[in-house]
Every structure is written in structure tokens, then in C-alpha cells.
Amino acid sequence: MKKIISVVGARPNFMKVAPIHRAFQNYKDKVKHLICHTGQHYDEKMSKIFFEDLEMPKPDFYLGVGSGSHAAQTANVMIEFEKVLIDEKPDLIIVVGDVNSTIACSLVASKLNIKVAHVEAGLRSFDRSMPEEINRLLTDSISDFLFVSEKSGLENLEREGVDKSKIFFVGNVMIDSLIHHLPKAQASSVLKDYNLEPSNYILVTLHRPSNVDSEEFSKKLLKLFNTLSEKRKIIFPVHPRTKKNFMSFGFKTENEKIILTDPIGYIDFLSLTKNAELIITDSGGIQEESTYLGVQCITVRENTERPVTVDVGTNQLIGTNLEEVEKAALKILNGEKKKGSIPELWDGRTAERIAKILVKKLS
Ligand code: UD1
Description:
Helices cover 45% and strands 17% of the residues. By secondary structure, the chain is α/β, with parallel strands linked by helices. Bound molecules: uridine-diphosphate-N-acetylglucosamine.
């Protein structure tokens, strides 16, 4: 019997590990699959609700690390996770994505000679001012199994000289979760709750430090919202980091067509994504989810580590100049929609492929 521990830490990790956990249930005689939650995200609406929505079991280990500077957060995860690994002696750990918990846990495991699998390997924004890019580069460089979600990842890892035998093009686990939970999302009442009509509102999410730590950005965003709200309702679930900053900048509105909410759970958010006419975001995952669903997406960043969403999907990389975002948004609202298709292997079976490969490699 092999023991595998998958790590979750921040909101975008939960929907990636849920299908992996499900896939390992088919190998119960061969693999004991455990989940460790670092506690990087801890608010009920950033964490607990996702376990419920995604039908995940309670984590086997909870490190309770919480927020802090990058160094403090990463270091605290390392200290706590090392204890778990020393006690449990797993054969392999699985890390997903690019958050601080991802690099912290892979570093601890690799120093204890425990094998590391990185799911969503090879993505590169080529922008080392983003903490996630550093986390991606470092995690990939010490991983033993690199599971890639899009072709650009293969090219990046090859260029970096990663041994081909470690790399597996398997598709996108986040899309596994989307496909699995779509029927429940169709039944969600969230549109009714916020008085929204399908294909007739704009969904906004913004949390990147490079955007939301700037007072000037928050002022321009309010101006953009006021302009766009003349055309459509806007719903903006606000990430805790964004809320904290924007409140200190005095960001507020009385405009009834601009709906500001707390973070929203997975199923309701999926419903909001599926039914939006347009999404404006700086998230990584939402670029992918909108591409799968064929929903128009404007990415408020200068680069993306997920170029397939632009090359093949419905995503447009507009940059952080909100005047350009306004122009692009108005074009879409006037009917100039970008056509897209679904990237290769985004078929809902990625976690099955990962589990099959790992079971074989570990036996
Ligand atoms: C993290 C990830 C980012 C991911 C994002 C999704 C890193 C470096 N960044 O960014 O890649 O896209 O999660 O949300 O790992 N906070 C709360 N409650 C929580 C969590 C956070 O109030 O449950 C607040 C705290 O003030 C905290 C701040 O948000 O200091 C930032 O949290 P942190 O985990 O450091 O990074 P995120 O911005 O959430």
C-alpha cells in the first residue's frame, strides 16, 4: 500500500485536488490518499465552503498557518509540513498550482527524499515580479513528476532542460471539477438571489497585488464600473486582500447596478461564470474556466501563464490600463465576440490519467 499526501493551501487549490482525491478512490487497494490543508486561506468563504461544495472529505492534516509576509507564510508552512512528513513518511506528495503552499511543501518533501508530483507544471508568465512565477519555477525544478495542462507547458519545460521522462501532458484538473459540478451549478439560485439575468451581466474578480495594492487603480476601476454599469449590471465578489486595500482607499459606490459581494462558493461562482456575458478578471483559473465555457473574458494583466486561453479560447489579454479594458469591454457588449474552442485534453478525465500514471510509477 502506497501513501500519497496531496496539499491544498489557497482557494484555487481546492478544485484541483478534489478530482484527484476522487480518482484515487478507484485504487483504494493500492493507494492511501490523504489531504493536508496548510491553512494559507482560512476564511470560511475562502476555504470551508469549497470543501463542502466540492464534496471533499475534511483534511487529514490542518497546519493552520494563515497569512503573513511571503517569507513568514512559506517558512511556517515548511516547519509544520515537515512534522507531518516525518510522522507519516508518505511515498509521494502532490502539489498543485503556484501558491506559496505549493513551493513550501515541495521543498520540504524533496529535502526528505520524498517524491513530488506537481500538477499544473510548466506554466510560465515570464514575469518574475509575480510571486507565483517564482513558485512555479522552483516547484518544477525539484519535482519528480510534472503534469502539464496545456502545450505551452511542454515547450517551457523542454526549454528549461527538464528530463522528458518526468513530463506528462494530461490536461486540466480544474476543468475536471468544472465538468463534474456543472449540473449542480445549473440548479443554483445565485442569479435570482442577485437579480441577474443570464448573459446580461458582467462578472468581475480582481486580487493580484500588482492591481489591487494601488490606490490609483482602485479609483480608475470605480470609473470603469460606472461607465460599464450604464450598459449592464456588474457583480464583483471581493477577495479579502482587495477588500482590505480598497476599503483603506475609500472605494465605495451607491450605484445599484454595481453589486459588491463577499467571496462566493464554488457552485454559485460556477453558475455566475457560466451565465456571464463578460468576465473581467486577473485570476489564472477563471481564464481557463471561461475558455472551457466559451464565455468572453478580459484579463487585466500584462501577461498570462495560460496562453492557450488566448490562442485557442475566448480570453483576451488586455493589460492593466483600464481605458483599454473599457474599450475592449464595450466592443464585446456591442456584439463583437471572440470565438473560441476547448483546448486539448480538457475533457474531465485529467485526474484519472494522473492517478493511473502515479499508481503505475509507484508500484
Ligand atoms: C493567493 C496566491 C495567489 C492566488 C490567490 C487566490 C500566493 C503567493 N498567492 O493570493 O496565487 O491566486 O491566493 O485567492 O500564494 N486573507 C484573508 N482570508 C483568507 C486568506 C487571505 O483575509 O482566508 C487576506 C489576508 O489579509 C492576507 C491576504 O488576504 O494577508 C493575502 O492572502 P495570501 O494567502 O497571502 O495571498 P492571496 O492574495 O490570497
